[in-house]
Amino acid sequence: MSLQLLLGAAFAPLLVAYAVACLRDPLRYALPPYAVLIPFSSLLAVGPGPFGSVSSLLGLLLGVGLLAQLVTTRRGSTQLPIEVPVWLAFLALCGLSLFWSIAPSATVEGFAVLSSLVLLFVALVLTRFDVQTLRLFENSIVLGGALVVGYGLAQVLFLGGLPAFDGGAGRFGDDLLGANNQAASLLLPAAIAAGRTLTGMGRWRVVYGAVTLAMLLGVLMTGSRGGLLAILVVFMSIILFSAARRIAKAALVGAAVAVLAVIVVVNPGGLGERQVNKDTTSGRTEIWAVGLYACRHYCLTGAGWGGFPSVYAEERASVAEAKVLRRGTAYEPHNIFLLALIETGVAGFLLVVVGLGLAIWTALRLPVSMRGPPMGAILGIIASSFFLSNLEFKFFWAVLTYVAVSGTVIASVRAGRLRDAPAERRRPLAAGQDGR
User: To bridge 197 with a disulfide, which of 39, 81, 209, 329 should be the other Cys (CB 3.0-4.6 Å)?
Assistant: First the structure.
């Protein structure tokens, strides 16, 4: 008997016990490790394909557990956020696009990934969260961000440097989600940590301040200029929408500026080179030019979900400034709004805009004591979405989940249905402080 079989036999009872625990209480046992592993992607995988990572398997277990809980115990949320039917309508449109898709196999594969993310989002939003469970979700997100940045620092300091592909400079995340998406995955933990930095007490404020700066360092290590812009949007939103003393906000801004200046000016280990190197281009403007040119054919009904690479290959020769790009992933539209318009038509584009707009509205209606992190996260992910095609990534839906769940929790607190709310959320809100 091989060592692998022996280890499998030894751990099988533990895995079965863990699976049973997840099915009985998915928010306690399945959601935290799932959230922690979101930024690690295929680094921790047990098989090939989009569903072979440990985080995907945990997501499946989490979804099954939530569905079983909703059916058997009726522990559903007391409210149905309007974002749910909007995103379900978008998912349905993506599935129906198979009937007119110019790349049916890509549509089927992409729809399988998108449906798993949207349905998990719906299951989480429909599940009854309390304040403690929301806090556990936040803690898990922050821990995952801190751990993945620690992994990047270990690569720089001890493992021979950041991974480099196609002869380019090393970039953090190229062996995980891809450098640009890796930067976007750090926006939610950065928003939560920054919010706690401003509102925390004692030494915890210092701890979360250090985590916030680590998230900024992680984004800088990716070399993503869009990611840097997005995390700056996160910080500005936290400063604008959080209820904190001006001195705390000034300290956060000063520390972030200092870290940014050291990395860009001193350029330790070449980490800041890509941020200031004007010779490095991503090819996005050329991709966007092809996409806009193809709009005359596909913007009404769409080319089918997952069809943009085929559209690009078909229309590239008709756009003089476009060129053959080296990496196949460069055929992505690098903009979720252009993606929705080309692949799902005007209807899909409007659904994406409405879904994101409703998330902003939900965050704005939160009490000022907790508005900062959700607003920072949603505005940051929208900023990053102007440069990325991230609708099929877990971190995108984690942001939408966080905003929607925050809304349902505070609605239950206001209605008196949650008796375990912290003291500051049980006190009556002063006029003008509840975001309405």
Answer: 209
Rounded Cα gap, residues 278 and 276, in angstroms: 6
Measuring CA to CA, which residue among 52, 64, 56, 57 is closest to residue 26? 64
Structure tokens belonging to residue 252: 């956060």
Domain that holds residue 18: 1-70
Cross-strand partners of 45 = 53
Sign of CA dihedral 33, 39, 41, 45: negative
- Is residue 180 in some structural domain? no
Mean of all residue pLDDT scores within the chain:
86
Residues 108, 29: Cα–Cα separation, whole Å? 31
What pTM value is reported for the model? 0.91
Q: Give the separation between CA 141 and CA 193, rounded to whole angstroms.
A: 10
Helix, strand, or coil (residue 52): coil
For residue 309, with 0-12 CB atoms within 10 Å meaning exposed, 13-18 middle and 19 or more buried, which class applies? middle
HSE, side-chain direction, 13 A CA sphere, residue 169: 17
User: Do residues 66 and 31 make contact, with C-beta atoms less than 8 angstroms apart?
Assistant: no
Q: Locate 347 and state its tokens.
A: 């209807």
Q: What is the pLDDT of residue 428?
A: 38
DSSP per residue, 91-149? HHHHHHGGGT-SSHHHHHHHHHHHHHHHHHHHHHHHB---HHHHHHHHHHHHHHHHHHH
Q: 4-23 pLDDT, tens per residue? A: 567 667 778 888 899 999 98
In-domain check, residue 418:
no
Query: Is residue 402 situated within a structural domain?
Result: no
Instruction: Indicate whether 129 belongs to any domain.
Output: no
Phi–psi pair at 45, nearest 5 degrees: -135, 150
- When divided into structural domains, the chain yields a total of 1
Contact status, residue 301 vs residue 100, Cβ threshold 8 Å? yes
